[in-house]
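User: Predict the complex.
Assistant: Input components as received:
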Amino acid sequence: MPRRGGARQTAHDTLLRWCSEVGSTDTHQFLRSCRELDLDPWHAAWALSQLGHVEFDWRGSQFATAPTTITTIPGVPSRLLLCGARPSGLMERLRQVADGEGLDVMVAEEPCHQFGQAPSTLLIDADPTDAQRFAALAGIEWVPAAHQLLVSLLPTVDAEAIGEREEPDERFPHAPIDPDTLQVRWDWEWDEGRDGLWRYRTFSDPRAAYLRRDGVCLRLAAVEYGPYVLDRGQDVEPLLRYQPASRVLVVEGLAPLPDLQARAACLCSGRMPLRQHFAADVFEDHYVNVDPETAARIMTSLGMEAVHA
Amino acid sequence: MTELAAWNVALLDTLLPTGGSTGRGVLLACDDDAVVAAGARLDIPRTRAIEEFIEAIRAGYRVSTTLGLSVAAEQLAPFARQPAPRTGPPPFLAALCLTVLAASHMTRDERLSTGAYYQRLCDLLHIEPLEGWPAVAGFEDLVREGMRLLADWLSEDESGVRGSLLLPARPKPSLIGFPISQTLLRGRDRDLLGVFFAAHERHLRAGYDPALLLRRWSGRERLTRPARNVLADPQLDEDLGAAIRTAFAAWDGSFVDSTTGRRVLPGSLRLVAAPGRIGLRLVVPALSAAATASTTNGETIPLRAYPDAAGIPHSVLNLACEGPVRLALHAREEEIAAIPAKTVLFELGAGGLEQIPAAGEEPVWVLTCDPGLLSAIPEGPRHFRAPLPSGWALLADVKPEELPEDVRVSERDGVPVQGATLTGGLQLDAWAWLVDYPPHVHCDLPEPAPVTIDDVDHGYMEPGEPLTLGVLAGDSGTHRVEVAGLYELEFELRESGSRDGIGTVGRYPQDPRLLRAGAISAKDAGESTSARIVGACIAGGPELRWRPPLMVTFNSTVHVIYRDGRVRACSPPNPPVWLTQVGLDRAVNRWEIPDGADAVWLCVASDSHPRVLARLEMDIPVTDEALDLVDWFAERQVIGDDATKRRWRRLVAIAHEDEAPGDAT
């Protein structure tokens, strides 16, 4: 990755612009473009997906940029968040629409950087009363409170819902996941077939996660679900905490939120989570400006009680 | 068509194809690879091609020690008498090819010197050499006259479209010099080519010119004299390149070790890594049948035919601490390269962890006894826990930058190049790139090559080095790059792409079947009518009761009277802390009146311009707190039409009545 944050920021913005111009193509092309821009492709894809810019179908080896969409963010009604495709000339077009139609909309001159971790945040200063008309005139989507709408669609995650019965291929390297630290323990000698969460490195999916429970083995739809369907002791730290005073959703570093939950949290601000490091490999992700209802729904969708810290 | 006639046609099309050779000198360069290629045209498997070719010759010409190739030689005179143009190849072509094939087999081994041509030919034909000269009956006529007739047929009957056969005026040795002169690469050269292929495999796969590479190879002096002569003859460049490519395509990875003289078959390790257990397995692509091998300390290891893998004991790793481990194949002059060094890299393949020569960009697994590497990655979650010989460890997820330089490859090593290509940049479609990120040029020329960009000289590009086209960044339009006057590349730099397919991949969290799929294309989602999420764009979800908030820009406190008579004082809020933290707090001058949809009157307590605004045209229930506020703003300017002003005055009147002494009691 480029060392300087400024250079990385430009690279992330350029990558989003490229995705927007291409529209949709295969993920190999995406990986090549990341390499061209000196960006870690997995981190870049994670950021683009969380922020609602691009959808990645890794199994189908394709990606598609999402339609340009404006939405509201909680607690800051005067700001509209711009998500999805950001092709060349978009800002100029939005500015022309705002000026030409006499709408109470001010398109920011400068997007706000993400400390070189993701594409810049683009907020439009507007009276939300004018937002729908503005979107229609500009030819973009208008989805008020997308974060609320998204969490309202989240099913409650349980192992049966997000897992499929499948015996793993033992030829591939595998190791248990420590239920306390959630680290992959290649240095553990667990009995094969022991109950718990297992990580397999298969050819088709280097991050395959399997849950063994009561003699049944389930392949999880995404590795991120693993910690949330794992049987953990009662006395362990919760994986999620919500701080209502600061409206921060705190996520344990090794238990990242599944895609849609993460996107709902990001759409509350348009920001990537702020990573707080405590030691090597020990960190938390702080999602800012998450309103209590959204936080509660994210927690309950992951089978947790909506307990506020 | 007889079997022999079919071979004639297949060999002709393989060795002397039409197109591209017109007027050019060519050779009848028949070797094992050419016979395999010709056999493929007849649907004969590669493992049986040579055998079937020999059998066709033996049967077609009734070959025996007494008759030798006499029957083939009898075909010469009738062919010579045929009127021109004679269609179809000379009927004795396969026999001529056989004589060249024998020359290509000449090598130096225990029984034969390089010059023992006749023994090679007899071995191929399964006959004994004759006492006199030549040692094979019919050979002299066949070679001397047959080669001349073939040359005539190519130049006259075929009008040179297959090239002109190069024949020596005075061959040395006088007779077998004819077939030897046709061989580009002899058996000994082909053995050496294994070493050359091993050294240049990456470049050859990348499409570099094989003849140029061979000419620059440090081991070229060990080639036979005829091969060196071919190498020095630029007229034979194309034939030599084609021969090397054919040999490389058929290469099984083996090479002859120059110190031991033994053929080395490369092996590839597979790992089975399960908690508490590491299985070490060896695959040998060049091993076509099961075999037994032994280590230098006498341990016997049974091996399986490719593609099966055979388990090998961990004790072999002890030998690898001292250097590469080779296993000697029993009853064969061959060895298997089992473990290349004290650090072996693996990546995920279709069959599990498979050995790779070097790490590219992705993390790899490392089996090592290198103390430096082991100390760099301390004991912890990445050390795979399983019994291994002392000093060895299996490390998971080692990043390329954590590895020594000699087991890492750069991205450029893997760029396939044939001719000149455009790579890198931000590509929009087949021939268009994003305007600020033009492509780079790669080419296979072995020497510095002059470059022009849009017909302007741009210096030279170095061999193996990409040419960056940064000079074109930002210059939209069509551009043309020419390299060495040989390669022309035309492409376009654009501001925008096709933007096709936006929104075609989405998520369906409410559909139990599709929930597990994650993001998938609309096509794969089929007929699902479930709610669909694409980025922040959500369709088909529940109706949310969102109403636009009431926003104001006053820089002062606003007292609000609601439709139920409630009153609330609202002040411009400070920007939320998170906005300040992330640097987005500037220009927040618009703020929300809570429950704005129910606000009827806004009383702005501005020092310079206190005023009253109506939000809703309606009367409110009279409450004490509302009347107190009305009284406070009774004299202030009311913004609005006459009706608004009348309603405000009525409220003021009620407030004043309310304040009357009698009322207060």
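The two ends of chain A are 36 Å apart (CA to CA).
Let me know if you want any component modeled separately.
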